[in-house]
Amino acid sequence: MARARVMPLVALCALAAFAVTGAQVVPLDSSKQVLDWSRQSNIKPQNFSLTEEDRLQLLGRPEEVTHRKLRERTRVKKKIEPVQQDDEALVKLENAGIERSKAVDSAVLGKYSIWRRENENEKADSKESQRSLGEATADAELPKSASERAKAMGQLLAKARDQLYDCKAITQRLRAMLQSADEQVRSLKKQSTFLSQLAAKTIPNGIHCLSMRLTIDYYLLSPEKRKFPKSENLENPDLYHYALFSDNVLAASVVVNSTIMNAKEPEKHVFHLVTDKLNFGAMNMWFLLNPPGDATIHVENVDDFKWLNSSYCPVLKQLESAAMKEYYFKADRPKTLSAGSSNMKYRNPKYLSMLNHLRFYLPQVYPKLNKILFLDDDIVVQKDLTGLWEVDLNGNVNGAVETCGESFHRFDKYLNFSNPNIAQNFDPNACGWAYGMNMFDLEEWKKKDITGIYHKWQNMNENRLLWKLGTLPPGLLTFYKLTHPLDKSWHVLGLGYNPSIERSEIDNAAVVHYNGNMKPWLEIAMTKYRPYWTKYINYEHTYVRGCKISR
Ligand SMILES: *[C@@H]1O[C@H](CO)[C@@H](O)[C@H](O)[C@H]1NC(C)=O
Ligand SMILES: *[C@@H]1O[C@H](CO)[C@@H](O)[C@H](O)[C@H]1NC(C)=O
Ligand SMILES: *[C@@H]1O[C@H](CO)[C@@H](O)[C@H](O)[C@H]1NC(C)=O
Ligand SMILES: *[C@@H]1O[C@H](CO)[C@@H](O)[C@H](O)[C@H]1NC(C)=O
After folding, report:
1. Nearest Cα to 290, choosing from 208, 210, 174, 190?
2. Ligand 1 center–CA 226 separation, angstroms
3. Could you give the count of Cα atoms lying within 13 Å of 139 in the half-sphere of its Cβ?
4. Strand 491-492's sheet: what is its strand order?
5. pLDDT tens, 241-295?
6. Are 278 and 307 in contact (CB under 8 A)?
7. How far is the CA of 149 from the CAs of 6, 182, 425, in angstroms?
8. Going by CA atoms, what residue is nearest to atom 5 of ligand 4?
9. Which CATH class is domain 208-332+344-547?
10. Where is the segment annotated Disordered (predicted)?
11. Whole-prediction pTM value?
12. Which of the ligands is closest to the CA of residue 466?
């Protein structure tokens, strides 16, 4: 059975809103203000950790809260206007989000993309359309003619109206995005997939606000307060180590909190969080204020990894050249959404996507460790994970759950088997596996020069003939015959696109994964899956409340 290729409902709703309102584009330029914060991230952390007293001071004693809020308001206002929670600020924040997502979209990398077959069925029932909304990728194509599309749209809108979707909520959210979108949207070029991706990649206002407030407060901390305790644990191979690469502070907090809350011996767990410049202060501040119990955490900035440069890393080289082409050939003719931006920094995809590719450099990032559990930031941990360190990988490098069982995620779905380099080296029926919760044996990795294998394939894919987007296809090639299948209950997938996962399967899972576009922090999240995630957020937290983040 082929998966449907239709206009996702988000796009339909957004288009409907656009058609109805015919709203004008109001370009706002809050992006610069947002980005300038990144400049301050070169302050080096010193010793000392945050004391209980500091924490109280930052979070505020009850009698101080009002006072502090006033001060904070002044400070925030002075420093960074988009934090204000009025309408204008909301629009500005949204625009900043759009700016960010433009940069992502211009990148050749998509976090959740897959190779699509040429001949997919265009008809869809409602479940399929929801799936397609969840799984849509930039390389999916539009229906062939406008009339076909109009028909498909009409049918889907009719279905959407009497089914589970709250179109209004989605349209409201997406209207602002759509309004500021330029020709590409109106030219109807790949907009269906584009819009659902935009929704998926845009950081919502609340999280943006949270990140900015935390950033401000981080840089107001005296340098000696910025250090995390227990740094002696970071390289101790007897502890349980996690790699978490994220630019979303709320998502990262859920991963860490859920892991610790369900750990039998929290003091034995160590989190290695890597983020980007933009979120470095916020991530530090969050975990200084909310330390993960007795566990250990530290935060690094991917831009500080000097060894990760374009002379070493093929994907960076490819990105930089693509970014340059974009800059020189498209800047004056804003044909694409990405070209409308005037901020070169936003167009440099390195900031946003290198975090994705960092998974191919684990021994370089953690030279002293022999095993590490890689976690995506769109997961929730529901059980003690230490059993994973006992699993015998049988000399393999990667422990992962396979995905070809109930559906059809085999190699030919992700890779171009018309290309001899693929056809001659791989089995099209080989079972795919999932990123999101992977045990990596770093000793075997080094022995087998996994990073070298990855570089080889990434170099061969310069013209994108082997695969289109993402890290899974190169991962499948790199870890071919080096992947040990883990029991499926360790990692249950699809909460970001599949509306029909068995409840018992979710409840039994050690880790649930919101892969797909319907992330739990977005309004388009599937409501029935959201509680598994929101459970690990303290909505009474001063910062969370202050940014109007609510269930
Ligand atoms: C930080 O701690 C180390 C040892 O724990 C000490 O030698 C060093 O002087 C400290 N640095 C500062 C700035 O206090
Ligand atoms: C680039 O990375 C390589 C190895 O990863 C390193 O030897 C080199 O010094 C780096 N170049 C710069 C300019 O940092
Ligand atoms: C697949 O590979 C073949 C051979 O290199 C190439 O001609 C074809 O364009 C590729 N398909 C896609 C969709 O890139
Ligand atoms: C972690 O989650 C629990 C349960 O929801 C919550 O009570 C706690 O405040 C959270 N901890 C942090 C540090 O956010």
Report:
1. 210
2. 13
3. 20
4. 379-381, 511-513, 491-492
5. 999 999 899 999 999 999 999 999 999 999 999 998 888 999 999 999 999 999 9
6. no
7. 8, 21, 38
8. 536
9. alpha beta
10. 119-147
11. 0.68
12. 3
